[in-house]
Specification:
Length: about 350
């Protein structure tokens, strides 16, 4: 009995030591990730403030190295980056996809875009990290192209939305891209990931029939790019809102009336009564962009948000379906307000 008791005590002590060692390792990892995050925050702040463009690029490269150091830790996908400024980190709820994006603001008011994606490789059961190479300025008709990590339409992403079509999962990203001194843009990008962790940007899941901003013949759009003046502030985000739509029409019959004998009254015409229904759901909500005059069409430095007209994209039948002029009366939470002009001393959260 004594020998058996000693053996149990020995196992208990060994288990306790093992548990302590695991805790210490986890604490060390957490400390290291905190250190990396603090270094990224310090470098990103410095990158925005310095005036020398070459130095900005050098600092950005250091940020890239730190991000890769972070992604080398298997459990880093669970680490929280919410408080990080200037480098935005979005993580899917299924922990299969994470994207880091940031902007290098040059002294001539142009920009460079940097991104690193961390994806789960189902075949190898491990995470793989990729550098995203921006080719946005060299892509003609970028709205209709399927792209990969070597040809990325660079943007600073601030929102991720997850949807599914059967077993296929889509990660819809909302972001900002500065184009020139006078033109900026907001972007809705779609990401899909294959079993080996390969990333594809762009997918035809937009039903934008009747969306005048994009004109006719854009039903094959794989991403949506909204160009407008740098003097304007376009709201584009994912909110809980209300849509009022016509569901059907029914004839309204005239009410029977007792007429006096001999009076040949004409029947009043039947009227159509439009039935409506209300849809309350999460949707992509956006300001409608219009030119200052018809002559300025497609001169995007003359495009501004239309006052009090809000449109939406609602996920229906496996697509983002366009709805015009929605009843956007629900209050937008303070954390989701992205309608301010983007400045790099106050990036959107």
């Amino acid at each position: 009995m004594i020998t058996k008791h000693k053996a149990l005590m020995k196992k208990y002590i060994l288990f306790s030591i093992f548990a302590i060692l695991i805790t210490r390792v986890s604490a060390q990892d957490l400390s290291l990730l905190n250190s990396y995050k603090d270094s990224i925050a310090r470098l990103a702040s410095e990158m925005v403030k310095v005036s020398d463009d070459k130095l900005k690029v050098d600092i950005s490269d250091k940020i890239s190295n730190l991000v890769f150091n972070i992604t080398e830790h298997a459990k880093s996908i669970n680490y929280n980056f919410d408080e990080l400024k200037f480098v935005k980190v979005l993580t899917s709820s299924d922990k299969k996809f994470r994207v880091f994006t940031w902007v290098i603001p040059f002294s001539d008011k142009t920009y460079a875009y940097r991104g690193i994606a961390q994806c789960y490789n189902k075949s190898k059961k491990e995470y793989t990290s990729y550098t995203l190479t921006d080719k946005g300025d060299k892509l003609g008709f970028a709205q209709n192209k399927t792209l990969d990590i070597k040809k990325w339409y660079g943007a600073y992403y601030y929102k991720m939305i997850e949807t599914k079509r059967g077993s296929k999962r889509f990660y819809t990203l909302i972001g900002w891209r500065g184009i020139s001194r006078t033109v900026q843009s907001k972007v809705i990008e779609v990401v899909t990931i294959k079993n080996r962790g390969n990333i594809t940007f762009g997918y035809n899941i937009f039903d934008i029939k009747g969306y005048d901003y994009f004109g006719k013949g854009n039903r094959s759009s794989k991403r949506l790019i909204f160009k407008f003046s740098t003097q304007g502030n376009m709201y584009l985000n994912y909110d809980y809102q209300t849509i009022i739509i016509a569901s059907s029409k029914s004839k309204k019959h005239k009410r029977k009336t007792n007429y006096k004998p001999g009076f040949n009254a004409q029947s009043s015409p039947e009227k159509e009564k439009i039935k409506t229904k209300s849809i309350k759901d999460n949707m992509i909500v956006l300001d409608r962009l219009v030119p200052t005059s018809p002559q300025m069409k497609e001169f995007y430095d003359f495009y501004y948000p239309e006052s009090n007209i809000i449109d939406a994209l609602l996920w229906q039948k496996n697509k983002w379906k366009y709805y015009a002029d929605i009843d956007a009366r629900n209050k937008v939470s303070n954390t989701d307000k992205i309608n301010k002009k983007i400045e790099y001393d106050l990036v959107p959260k």
